[in-house]
Amino acid sequence: MKKHDELKTQIIHRPGGKTGGATWHERFSMDFLVNGESLYKLLGADKLDMIGRFSKETPDWNSKSVDVFIQKLPPDLGNGRVMLYVCSECGDIGCGAITMQISKNNDEYIWSLFAYENDYDPEMTDYESYKSVGPFRFSTEQYEQVVHNAGNSIALG
Question: Angle at which helices 59-69 and 140-150 pack, to 10 degrees?
Fold first, then answer.
């Protein structure tokens, strides 16, 4: 039985476009693969028109995100949760995000309790749809290397 899950990344490309009066921007962001499976697809972020929080267009946010993911900074949300996939246009929790809890033991990081939530209506929070996902356990060394690489916006796009 393996002790740790394998974490890797891949680029998500969201093409820009225009229909009638609506315009959406092209985005390059990072997807996380756990044991070769895309969390972006597994969590349905692709169907919600979300992108990964690590994005080519947001180098300052990427740097902060690394520190949140390795727990040098507090979680994004007051409830102790971290945004993983966010609104493709603004990245704001108000538009809704797929979130998770990140915890750290001596030799591993753990991603668990995935959910969809926003910051204004607790009735919209959905843990149920994600209850079969995770928890995932990553070795500290491999995890921190992958997260630092994800935060390197030059590698995107």
Answer: 170
